[in-house]
Design brief:
Restriction endonuclease type II NgoFVII N-terminal domain-containing protein, RE_NgoFVII_N, about 700 residues, alpha/beta, 3 domains
Length: about 700
């Protein structure tokens, strides 16, 4: 007989503990029979019916319960855990959230029968503990009493559903001393990895109490009193556990597919009869399926959504639940060199475009540096929020705007292809803020491209998507928008949260149709350059997050400096001559890029109408006047960075020259020719200020 698993990769297996048992008896009984004759219980349970647990207190003199976890956010998550016994990640934040919610739930249930449980808690015969590491999936119950010991194990959690026969379970009991000694050791192992729910967490004087007597607490549990926090402050050393990939097994894959299908089916109501009851009959099924099949295509959840999971802590990247890259992996140098040359030649080809081709190449380089880094943005933003650093220093959004034939859409697709070998995009007609934010969680680290966003959708959905984004997850997809819309009409509070790249060059349509190389490149480009980039970036990103956490917000790492440095080192290694557009970048570079339209307009205005420019006496401020055209002044105001803008009165906009120079590196009045043009204009007879160049304006 052939081995069905012979084709599979077999990693070195961990050692398992197997119990060699012999069946001596099986019988039908109720749960009271199992617990009868014993007075003490020590239990480890993964999930539980607390009502059932507490119902035991009337039968047992002493109870100690260790909870594996209440980390059950959805039925699908529970099924995944039970099917695979693997969590993608379980760290301090998960532990903190689990323990807070469990203790608060425990308080509510205890409070319902406080007259029964309060004495037991006070005399120490009812105790609770919580595991601090990854959730345990064990079910182990140790019973003892005057007549001996009993071990109860199997598939059943300590719940009403399991022990009341509402679902099929396997329950195994051992009454012999040898089994007791072995399972006692197991219990002690988990006991040592747990922390107590101390009495003062559960018992206290209610703020509304008129008598001042002790009772079961019902107020929200402060994070400072969560057991794991109290234990760490008392000296417990807690080590963060890195992520564990969920295996690509039948159960995990099937359940994830079921989750996506469930999202789709939620949009279809089950028809009800006249009494308001959803009775599922053959006719109901036909109606339901017809409604489902009539859903518009954009509202259906795609079955084949790819996903990349990037774990900075473990240094591993999984693509569609399979290990794709590890930090220690050696990427073939020849493949890296090939991809590097392809991308350098491609960006260099924009030199043939009409318009400001040099600026286009610089913008595309900046976009490449950002997009390669962008899968780390969520992880770094999370650290920034925790440590009171501005999270928008690590933007997860970018917009490429400019001329309609500037190659924006194709460029984003090629760069995305060079990352994970996958391009995921949605059309402008299908774009909504809700759909984009939902998709980015499905994709993980794979960029989401939204092509040719129309002006109405840019104005309607982008503000909602960006302004309301307070996501604290440590992985989700970067979102890239391309548009022909003038980015100056996007509010400044949005552009400061996005990478903005202006493409002021294009090819005529007739030339573009004759150019086959970019589309051929999309098929030929590999992922070797990006895989090599990731192996270098992962340890640095981990160290960068460590700087944030240990610096308490005093250290603000610049991820753009790091990303451009890594890419430049790879180009120096694999390309014969580094092009001049490939230069070091920093966050300040991207800040200046957001203001490039503003700089262009201001320089043009100084060159064509210098008489409309006035300076304060100390040359700290500049006023740009638009000759009575308030609409033009309002349009210009939208392009001015908020730290430069000092206000507008009618047709005149006031600018902060020092902020312009310090933050943007842009100092128009320091240029002798520009200053000379302004002076010359103001010395002309009949000029608005009677020939005086310097306006007496010392106001702020």
């Amino acid at each position: 007989m052939s081995d069905l698993f012979s084709h599979m990769h077999h990693p070195e297996p961990a050692r398992l503990t197997a119990f060699q048992a012999e069946l001596t008896e099986y019988r039908q009984c109720n749960w009271q029979d199992i617990f009868a004759g014993f007075s003490r219980l020590r239990a480890i349970t993964f999930s539980s019916s607390l009502e059932f647990l507490l119902g035991l207190t009337g039968r047992l003199e002493d109870m100690e319960i260790v909870f594996g976890s209440e980390h059950i956010l959805t039925k699908t998550h529970l099924a995944l855990v039970q099917a695979s016994q693997v969590f993608e990640e379980y760290g301090f934040r998960d532990c903190l959230a689990d323990q807070k919610s469990l203790v608060e739930g425990l308080r509510r249930i205890l409070g319902q029968r406080h007259h029964l449980f309060l004495p037991r808690l006070q005399d120490g015969t009812l105790r609770f503990r919580l595991l601090t590491g990854r959730p345990s999936h064990e079910k182990l119950y140790l019973l003892s009493g005057p007549d001996g010991h009993r071990v109860v194990t199997g598939s059943a959690n300590l719940s009403q559903a399991a022990f009341h026969g509402r679902q099929h379970e396997i329950i195994i009991t051992f009454d012999d001393p040898a089994a007791w000694r072995v399972f006692e050791d197991y219990y002690q192992r988990d006991y040592r990895q747990s922390v107590p729910v101390e009495d003062e967490i559960l018992i206290g004087v209610s703020p509304t109490s008129k008598t001042g007597q002790m009772d079961i607490r019902a107020d929200p549990l402060p994070y400072e009193d969560v057991p794991i926090v109290r234990a760490i402050r008392a000296g417990l050393a807690h080590v963060e556990q890195g992520g564990i990939p969920v295996p690509d097994g039948f159960s995990a894959t099937a359940l994830r597919t079921a989750r996506r299908l469930r999202q789709e089916l939620e949009a279809v109501p089950l028809p009800m009869n006249r009494k308001g009851i959803a009775l599922v009959t053959p006719g109901t099924v036909s109606t339901f399926l017809h409604a489902r099949n009539s859903l518009p295509a954009p509202d259906r959840v795609a079955d084949g959504i790819p996903r990349a999971t990037l774990s900075v802590r473990t240094g591993e990247i999984h693509l569609n639940d399979r290990l794709w890259l590890s930090e220690k992996e050696m990427v073939p140098s020849a493949q890296v060199a090939r991809d590097a040359r392809l991308l350098v030649n491609y960006i260099g080809s924009f030199a043939a475009f009409y318009g400001n081709s040099r600026s286009a190449m610089t913008s595309y380089w900046a976009f490449l540096v950002w997009l390669y880094m962008a899968p780390f943005s969520a992880f770094l933003r999370q650290g920034a929020v925790i440590n009171h650093i501005d999270p928008w220093l690590y933007p997860p959004y970018a917009v490429l705007y400019g001329r309609s034939s500037g190659g924006k859409t194709l460029f984003t697709r090629i760069i995305a292809q060079s990352m994970f070998g996958i391009v995921k995009s949605i059309r402008s007609s299908d774009f909504t803020a809700q759909r984009a934010l939902a998709l980015r969680h499905e994709l993980g680290a794979i960029p989401l491209l939204i092509d040719d966003v129309t002006p109405d959708r840019m104005g309607k959905y982008v503000p909602d998507m960006v302004r309301t984004d307070h996501d604290m997850a440590d992985i989700y997809a970067p979102i890239v928008l391309t548009t022909n819309k003038d980015v100056t009409s996007i509010p400044a509070d949005l552009t400061k949260r996005m990478v903005t790249c202006h493409i002021d060059a294009s090819l005529p349509d007739s030339r573009a149709l004759q150019t086959e190389s970019p589309r051929r490149l999309q098929k030929e480009i590999g992922t070797a350059l990006y895989r090599q980039y990731l192996t270098l970036m992962l340890p640095h990103a981990r160290a960068m997050r460590g700087e944030m956490d240990h610096g308490g917000g005093k250290t603000i790492p610049d991820v753009f400096v790091l990303s451009s440095r890594i890419l430049l080192a790879l180009l120096d290694q694999h390309v014969s001559a580094r092009p001049d557009w490939a230069c070091p970048l920093s966050y300040r570079t991207y800040q200046a890029m957001r203001a490039i339209q503003f700089q262009r307009i201001l320089i043009e205005m100084i060159g064509s109408h210098p008489e409309n420019i006035t300076l304060s006496r100390d040359r700290r401020f500049m006023r740009a006047r638009f000759a009575g055209d308030i609409r033009q002044a309002v349009a210009f105001e939208k392009s001015v960075p908020e730290f430069v803008f000092k206000g507008r009165i009618a047709d005149t906009v006031k600018l902060d020259l020092m902020a312009m120079e310090n933050e943007l590196g842009f100092a128009p009045i320091r240029q002798t020719s520009v200053l000379g043009r302004i002076m010359k204009a103001w010395k002309k007879p009949g000029s608005p200020k009677g020939g005086h160049f310097v306006k007496n304006d010392n106001g702020p």
